[in-house]
Amino acid sequence: MVKSKLALTSSVIILGKCMYLYFPFPNNIMVGARSTFMSFPISNQDGYIFLGIIGSVLFIIAMILLVIGMKKYQFRTIIVVVIVYGLLPNLLIMIYQETLASGIAAISYDGNGKCKFESVNKDLLNGECNLVLHNRSNKAVSFELEFIDSFFMEDEVRMESLMNLAGPKSITIEANRKKSIHLKELLELSDVPKHIEEGTSENIHFKLIDGETTRTL
Length: 217
Description:
- It contains three helices and twelve strands, in the order αβββααβββββββββ.
- The chain has helices spanning 5-21, 50-69, 74-99; strands at 33-37, 40-44, 47-48, 107-109, 114-121, 124-135, 141-148, 169-173, 177-188, 199-202, 205-210, 213-216.
């Protein structure tokens, strides 16, 4: 079944380095990515990401070495490796958060948050956001939440970050609990030069702030 131990060993080492390059913790590495490959952001609003391109090339090389190292079942092995590679980081993060992490490092987000904005008049906007956060630690965690604009908005038009106009959102999540967070604000926009008139966004991103410690999710 094994054709070349050297090729297989090299493949495993390269895959480990690939995972290390863009391990998705403590921050979400995909925030702002316009194009991606596996776990690598290839480009963002500023152009191509050199390290992400290198990681993608290394991943492809690792797959080639994997095929070279196997006598048979190459296709099945690649499928299994890709699935494991995709699931392992989140599994490791969950184990860490449930055992050693504390504070905002123990907070996880499923990425399914949504915001909706409806115009009231020229300078007023109803903003409403919903998201679910999970405190995986054995102690309550308190933090401030700051919304981040979608990087797909053109001309730096503000959308999600408009919710920050109502002031910092202080949130506490009890130990080992999920919390559904619902925020609704009437936003006064007379002093905001570039903002949406109305709209909906999904898979929103935000920062958790605890003193000088921050996480981007």
